[in-house]
Structures are given as C-alpha cells and as structure tokens.
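Data availability excerpt. The first of two example chains:
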Amino acid sequence: MSSSSGVPSLTTSERLIFAVVRAARTAGAPTPELREAVCDYVRELKSRDEPPERVLVAVKTLVAEAGVSRKAYGDFDRAVIHPEHEVLDHVIRWCIEEYFHEAPRSS
C-alpha cells in the first residue's frame, strides 16, 4: 500500500532499512536478503514511473536512515576496508541494475 503522497509502502521501505542494518551490523557484508529488499523497493518506485535518479536518491536516503553512509573521502584510512562501504556499494549497484533490468521477451 502507498500513502497519498506517493511514498512506497512502509513494509517495503522498512524491509529495506532492516535488511541494511542486518547486512552492515550483523553480517558485515551484503546479503541475499538485502539484494531482494533493494530490488523490491526499486521495482515499486519504477512501477510509479519514478526516474532513475530519484530512485537512487530514495534508496540512498533509506540506507542513510539505517545508519549506513560513506564518510567524507579524507575522513578515513583508505587502506582499511569498511564493511558498511561494501554494503553501500552493493546497494547502489543493485539499484541501478534492477532499474535498468529488462524483462525477458516472450517469443
């Protein structure tokens, strides 16, 4: 369900936030659950004819609400791998891949 303002249903949004938290804090890496949540959210926004840039901003906003964001470039040691950055990188890639994914054509 969606609200009158066109915001995706809380269940889809919440599912993405919870999946981000679990992946970043518990697993320390992207998970299949996270990928599924990202793709579901992207499909929901795309079905409302949201342009790709708005979808990406919406996904990144939810990821930030989950407490995962990239620090300023100079604020971290580049030699250290940050699990949260890996999660964020995967989320962004999955978002773009899902948005531009073309359904197989039937013959």
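And the second chain:
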Amino acid sequence: MTETGYRHTRILERLGRHEKADARYIDEGARLLNLAQRVTELFGRQDPGERQRLLVTILRALHYPERGPDPEIPSTVGRDSEYVS
C-alpha cells in the first residue's frame, strides 16, 4: 500500500469513528431530553425522604462563587416543606 493509500485508509477510519460518536451523542441527547421532559412526573412518584435526598444532592453540587463549592445547605431543606412534599 502506498503512503497516500495508507493515509486515505486512516482518514476513513477516523471519519467512521466520528460518525459513530455523533450517533451515540444524538442518542444520549434524546434520552436526556426524554428524561428532562418526565422529571416532574418522576419526582412526584418519589416518597418525601427520597425527594429531600435528591434536593440536598443537587444543592450540594451547586457552586456559589461568593461562598465557594459545597456550601452549607440551608436548614429549610432539611425539613419536610412544601418544596419537598
């Protein structure tokens, strides 16, 4: 195989990998969009304790520039409030 033929083959292989990656990216995006559209329904099915754990996890993952990462969770999140139940 000539140098040009070898390079051509490598380019085609790389293009194939990119096409597969693009397809996976689109599939994952579609699944994520579906989940996002159902989030209210799925959240509503959970018991209050599970909702509270989810909210605390989300709040801990937030970054507050003025306080740095992992801020102290407000005490209202720890109670069974209208937002959790």
